[in-house]
Amino acid sequence: xxxxxxxxxxxxxxxxxxxxxxxxxxxxxxxxxxxxxxxxxxxxxxxxxxxxxxxxxxxxxxxxxxxxxxxxxxxxxxxxxxxxxxxxxxxxxxxxxxxxxxxxxxxxxxxxxxxxxxxxxxxxxxxxxxxxxxxxxxxxxxxxxxxxxxxxxxxxxxxxxxxxxxxxxxxxxxxxxxxxxxxxxxxxxxxxxxxxxxxxxxxxxxxxxxxxxxxxxxxxxxxxxxxxxxxxxxxxxxxxxxxxxxxxxxxxxxxxxxxxxxxxxxxxxxxxxxxxxxxxxxxxxxxxxxxxxxxxxxxxxxxxxxxxxxxxxxxxxxxxxxxxxxxxxxxxxxxxxxxxxxxxxxxxxxxxxxxxxxxxxxxxxxxxxxxxxxxxxxxxxxxxxxxxxxxxxxxxxxxxxxxxxxxxxxxxxxxxxxxxxxxxxxxxxxxxxxxxxxxxxxxxxxxxxxxxxxxxxxxxxxxxxxxxxxxxxxxxxxxxxxxxxxxxxxxxxxxxxxxxxxxxxxxxxxxxxxxxxxxxxxxxxxxxxxxxxxxxxxxxxxxxxxxxxxxxxxxxxxxxxx
Length: 562
Hints:
This protein has 562 residues and is an alpha/beta fold. The chain folds into two domains: 336 residues, Rossmann fold, CATH 3.40.50; 214 residues, no CATH class. Helix content is 40%, strand content 11%.
């Protein structure tokens, strides 16, 4: 795979009604009554906010929309991700906008805009396969709240054979990406080191959670209650209908596995072949999934990164044993806390490690940067400014708020996590859990608070939880790396056990977040996944594959429990 293609893939990974029932509408025939078509937000128009005064649309008008497709409507990130791809390999990607009901139970409340992204199949491909009408493969990168359009190019580039049978389609979830944006200023670090847990430090952290949540809810209160996975899934099925696909095949990573399970549950007749990768525990709730989060990252760090860096001490100068590498990282962290490393705080270092553990190919960037700083400290030289690795995504907890698209991602992620179903929301319960996770998993336990704890102050009515466990469901193929840090295999196994009509492919010795788009690819995973998506061949039993070596290694070092 060309290095430019790998960068696109890594960037995508770095990245969670009664009056008018969508489940019934999704399978209902088109309205017999003639109606005018609706084109949402033509090229050049600003993306409207959901509160703009517009006459409410009828359902017949929603399904009769005629999207206008243009590459000019795509978000700048999509073009930026393709600029290094050779022109002959570059897929043709175009975008459009449609409207969707703000409230699926009450159309009088108005609409939101959804951004659609798709690949365009070359005429030569259409002639070669003699299939003028492809299936639609809807893709989602997770988050939850990640802009889905950014995943279209990586799927098209890494799995080009899919384009002989499928259009690759993405719908940016309501509130994020090119859809109607809902930006909130994210949670900002009140202290430079979350491992400091004095009473005064905890009070500052809780105040930051409260300020973020209350300010965001106050700004978007009337809309936030409608930012849920169920509503996002209904949006996708509307897009499927508008685009004319009888069924929507699905490929979702991480939080996209949660969405895929909801799609299968709420639209069983119009969902097609479902592949869910890097699985959340979609049979439970978000708090349960994120409870496993620090454990997964700590395990990947302890069992893969530290031994790997030790095997390559000659290159990175971090130590010849896992314990020595750990000590080197902790010395850099302590120096950052003492102000001895320009541009670095303890929290920032933790977040850099956290981000770069998502993919195998980013491990050298992590080891190189920490190794340079550790060497300078060891030899008595003043470290140079800590350089953030190329392509690192902004995350909540920094000292500077990111741009509007990133802020909207944070808003939607928080809304989905807090709104998808009730769970204990008292500040004390979150604080107790985070302190316990921090003690058990010191590198990553405290980070989890930035993701879940603001729900204690999220005063938005929540949706009734969608029941997944024990309910008849369409087939779903689950892909799971054994040492996935963000969605640990324990949660995937729980979901697999709770949903009967699933098969799971486990990739032994693999630790990246996601198996299907892994770089380098695992042929075993590709073989079975492509057979299912393209021919409908569903495995008759669970399978095991072996991963690929980490950068610079010549073999796979398999993980064993204990």
